[in-house]
Amino acid sequence: MPERDGTYWDRQEVRSPVDREVAIFGALPGLIRHAMDNASFYASRFERIDPDTINSREMLNRLPVIRKQDLPFRGQPERSLSQLIATPMARLSRMHVSPGPIYSPEGNRSDYWRFARAFYAAGFRPGQAVHNAFPYHLVPAGFMADAGARALGCPVVPAGDGPLDSQFDAIEDIRPVGFAGKPSTLIHLLQRARAENRDHSSISRALVSGETFFEAKRAYLRNDFGIDAYQCYATSDTGLIGYETEARSGLLVDESMIVEIVEPGGTAPVGDGEAGEIVVTVFNPDYPLIRFATGDLSSILHGESPCGRTNMRLAGWLGRVAEITAFNGVTLYPQTVIESANRHNVIGSIRLFVANHGLRLELEATDRDADLEARLATTLRDLAGLCSATRIDVVYRQPGELGQGSRLIEDQRQAD
Description:
The protein is α/β, with parallel strands linked by helices. Helices cover 26% and strands 23% of the residues.
């Protein structure tokens, strides 16, 4: 394992933005040619494209966007997964299955999903054991974190969704310094451990992902449990896309990809600082994804991070494109729900349901707070631009009742 300088995973993170653009767009034509030569999907899709001309952001924007429906699904044998893989199957280590189903290959390279960079930025160091509670079954999340931690030199406890009693035993005996998993999983684990008088004091930092990480959750973990939690953003198709640093100033884009923010469901870039859909081009020779639309929303933060890293920064995960909903002439965005929760220190999950008669905001909490209900409803109306007469019912759910999914807005309207 190479020596680290104590601050950055590698010098790529602090190179000048100009040098980064020159390097990555100098390599882009080679990635496109490799995809066309080895994956029939790209050979057909780019048959009229000269790869050598795709050497800038402007030229990249002219390529079509790839969406989930373009990827192979069960029951559509004409869309064989082999059309997308640009390496022999014998060189792959795993085939993952995500809901859809979507199949994601995993190559044999160390830290294939590139999570080591996120762990390092979160303060993890060699020799510190990591309790990995991301799921290992079929989906790649557990393997993403597992491979990244081991590439850093951190032994892994593959907890997954194993029985809590066994997880408590492992934490008490092995005394891991770190945790990896969803923030709600960590909070549930800690609350149960405290209620059952189990020792979790060895865990002092966490790398979390997979759902909205409200600021109140970060503060709760720090103030109530002494855990410094960092978030990262990844998908089952692409691996790591963005990661948080000690600056707590957005998510740094991974050095192995190009990120664009485009009009939701479209192809054209949005204006400066506007929220839009995250589209990525991943420099992965096994499974090249070129202008792949994640279906997730974010925006670009201006300037460089105070931590000294120089890559593009994302404002964080701001919901899903499919959740954008029109209601009474107003467009509801999932980031509005996130901002409302952040302004009122909501810790539990929160979801907005759109019904024929009005809106219903559900949140997890053990105690009802009428004042919070009124403030949340007012804030949501103001942020969304809804008229003051818009009905917003606030409904409380028990912790865990809303589930650990990332959906923030659900349209339940029935046709008249």
